[in-house]
Amino acid sequence: MMYDDDVMEKIRAAQEKYEKELEKILSRTPGAGMDRSTFSGLTVKPLYSPKDVGQTDFLGDISFPGQYPYTRGVFPAGYLSRGLHIRQVTGFGTAEETNRRWKFLLSQGANALSVVPDDGSGNRADSDSEKVVGLVGKGGVALDTLVDFKTLFDGIDMAAYPVHIISTNAYALACYLAIAEERGIPFGELRGGMSNWVRPETECLDVIEYCAREVPLFNAGYLDMRNVREGGCTAVQEIAFGVATAMAGCDRLISRGLRIDDFLHRITWFVNSGPEFFEEVAKFRAVRRVWARIFRERYGAKNPLSLMCRMHCQTYAPTLTIQQPFNNLIRSTIYALAAIMGGVQSLHVNSFDEALAIPTEFSASLSVRTQQIIGLETDVTRAIDPLGGSYYVEWLTNKLEEEAVRLIDRIQGMGGAFKAWNWMCDEIRSAAMKNQQEYDSGERLLVGVNTLVDETDIQMEALKVLQRHAHFDAIHEYDPSYVDKQITRLNKVRKERDPEKLKQAVGTLTESMKSGQNMMPGLIEAVKAGMTRGEFARIKADIFKRPGEGPYVCSPPMVLA
Amino acid sequence: MEKVHRILLSRDDWYHQRGYWVIANALKDAGMEVVLGGIQTPMEIARTALNEDVDLIGYRIMQAAPDMVVRALFREMKANGIENIPVVVGGIISDREEKIIRELGVKAVFRSFDRLEAIRKQVRAIADLEPS
Q1: Which of A257, A304, A494, B121 has the fewest CB atoms within 10 Å, counting from its CB?
Q2: Rounded-to-integer distance, Cα A425 and Cα A549, Å
Q3: In this complex, do A432 and B39 lie within 8 Å of one another by their Cβ atoms?
Q4: Interface A-B: count of C-beta contacts within 8 A
Q5: What is the largest CA-CA distance in chain A?
Q6: Looking at the domain assignment, is residue A494 inside a domain?
Q7: Torsion of CA B10, A120, A220, A233, to 10 degrees
Q8: Contact B36 A553 (CB under 8 A)
């Protein structure tokens, strides 16, 4: 966006005149002197002009879609050749209920699938254990055995729909692969991915290493920055912590003897999209640019695919309110619009009832429709990177990149992300606290909560009327009978499996884990022999003595005083 | 001098910890001692409450069925002889679930966008009521 010196001089003179007038108007406008900083702490001016992006080099910094540094998108034709993946998180009850919901979402026009198991960290005892009381099929679907996974995938064409498994558990991948094998689908044709957080654990690295060799289209590594953002961090931190975490993971994988171009293209991003619309659009652009530059310049990645940062986005949830719940439809639509203008590959739009419960068919279908309306009825996807070239958005993109790279260098100075874990945790929590205090004080507004509060919440009343009188579920309720149903399914597997075969398979698996070989081949055989998720969790606990609860979490118990 | 309350904060599962940490810091900033239990089963919560001699248990419930885990918690507390320690709950709790867990003995239920100042006050008042 370079300008000739004389053109720039003319712009500068005209702008000076304009700014004087602007200042006069603002000085007599009450409220115009409000805080102009974004949640990431960038101070936003009332207007942007060529002056703010005069140093930006079009070919070097912005360029064309599908070309380095991929600021405008990773594919040359954007959504024109590769439509958005409409991918709603699904998972509750037993595999039967979730399979039914998947089919419902596909019937509504979703074109990608995602499943969340009920096992949180991925290391959960079996569903009949006292340790999982209250959790079975509640926040996700109960998947104890390969048989449950088979039920989940019943009637689902695995080759046609990319499935994302929201789990760090290699057990889930093993089941997925065992089903593909049974159906005669070559591993090389499997797309989709799993939420295998890049972390310094054998399980994580084994999955990435195995898939790089055997399941080449499967996105095996994952940067779950979306949930870190939910934890309270800023857009700058979302970029920086994600890239730094990927760098730390790459260092580990390279030390295993892999080359960067063997696996980097299968580490994908999970990103957020929140209330600060323009900062978010700029963030998606900045993530792509930072990713491409760091891995080309610092890691020598050469495969263009390695440098093409691909993202699944889920809209921001901390601003979803119980009060006036239908307002959440509008919030999530705006967040979705930012994600699509930012060029994400795949999207989950939060349902309006997610502050109350997990979504119903009714609310999940509205999330699908939101994406369809943006894609089919508006002109948002007609031109690629539609906000590229906006002085404001380009300035924001530059600024986010600059701040993120500074933060990445700081983390590298601490010895990399895995060593800086606790520091990152503290940063995220401080940002969350600041955000909460801003809402408490009314400095940051939230409709229905700290402004425009209704004495009688007719939206909530309407929802309750629906719940009482509709022939469908208007608010999801947990059905405790899932527990007995699941335990019956689990016991059937335990009774029918061949104990000798199981013992042998578990023995081989355990041996491979102890000797530092990749666990995946043995794990696939063990799930086929009927090993349960809880049994695998126990083996992992025995061999790896897995500390803590996962990334960005501190181990209990500790005292905060 | 005002008594320094010792509060145990535990949670049911792994995902979505923002509220948990915000509350932990808010109580700490208000001068309370916060014992971070992290992810715990009801049995582990009761044991930690006993060992750490806390004045109040704050239980974040987001993934679990509130009535089931609260019932299990009270059973474990009773088995450990600490049923007099007050329990408050925060998280995603429906009106119906709130009614059930209050009947079981939960003293307060907090949800997103309850103001921190109000939460602090209520926690302090509930902890004050209990002889320990």
Answers
A1: A257
A2: 13
A3: no
A4: 127
A5: 86
A6: no
A7: -40
A8: no
State chain A's mean pLDDT as an integer. 93
- What is the Cα–Cα distance from A456 to A459, expressed in whole angstroms? 9
Exposure of A397 in the CB half-sphere (CA atoms within 13 A): 28
* Residue B54 at interface with chain A, using a CB cutoff of 8 Å: no
Inter-chain touch B36–A554, beta carbons under 8 Å: yes
| CB contact (8 A) between residue A557 and residue B35 | yes
* Alpha-carbon torsion angle A177, A182, A185, A190, nearest 10: -20
- B25 and A560 within 8 Å at the Cβ level: the answer is yes
Residues of A in contact with B94 (CB under 8 A): 356-357, 475, 477
How confident is the model over A483-498, as pLDDT tens digits? Answer: 999 999 999 999 999 9
Cβ-based contacts of A232 with chain B (< 8 Å): 18, 21-22
Q: Note the pLDDT tens digit of each residue in A158-212.
A: 989 999 999 999 999 999 999 999 999 999 999 999 999 898 889 999 999 999 9
Is position A101 within any domain?
no
By residue range, what is the domain housing residue A350?
58-79+191-378+386-469
Asked whether residue B13 is assigned to any structural domain, the reply reads yes
Asked if residue A103 is part of any domain, the answer here is no
pLDDT at A557: 42
Residue B59 structural domain: 6-129
pLDDT confidence band for A1 (50 / 70 / 90): low
User: How many domains does chain A fold into?
Assistant: 1
What is the Cα–Cα distance from A210 to A227, expressed in whole angstroms? 26
> A445: nearest CA in chain B?
B113
d(CA A548, CA A541): 11
Would you call the peptide bond into A69 cis, given omega within 30 degrees of 0 as the criterion? yes
Confirm whether B109 is domain-assigned: yes
* Residue A486, domain member (yes or no): no
Res A468 pLDDT > 90: yes
CATH of the domain at B26: 3.40.50.280
For A493-537, how does the pLDDT look when each residue is reduced to its tens digit (9 = 90+)?
A: 999 999 999 999 999 999 999 999 999 999 999 999 999 999 999
- Name the amino acid, one letter, at A394: E
A130–chain B nearest CA distance, Å: 9
State whether residue A455 is helix, strand or coil.
Answer: coil
A468-487: b (≥16 Cβ within 10 Å) or e: eeeeeebbbebeeebbebbb
Q: In sequence order, which residues have a C-beta less than 8 Å from that of residue A134 and are 6 or more positions away?
A: B12, B64, B65, B66, B68, B69, B72
The answer to whether A549 contacts B62, with C-beta atoms less than 8 Å apart, is no
Say if CB B114 and CB B79 are below 8 A apart: no
Average pLDDT (A89-102) is: 98
Contact B43 A130 (CB under 8 A): yes
Kindly state the average pLDDT of the residues B41-50: 95
| Structural domain total, chain B | 1
Distance from CA of B31 to the nearest CA of A (A): 8
Q: In angstroms, what CA-CA distances link A122 with A257, A539, A544, A555, B9? A: 27, 13, 14, 16, 22
Angle between helices A202-214 and A520-528 (to 10 degrees): 90
**Which CATH number covers residue A397?**
3.20.20.240
Count of CA atoms in the C-beta half-sphere (13 A) of B35? 23
Between the two ends of chain A, the Cα-to-Cα distance in Å is 52
What was the pLDDT predicted at A269? 95
CA atoms A95, A99, A100, A105: torsion sign:
positive
Sort out which chain A residues have CB atoms less than 8 A from B42's CB and list them.
133
Q: Which of B59, B63, B74 is nearest to A136 (CA)?
A: B63
Q: Which amino acid type is present at position B82?
A: I
Nearest in space to A193 (alpha carbons), one of A309, A98, A114: A114
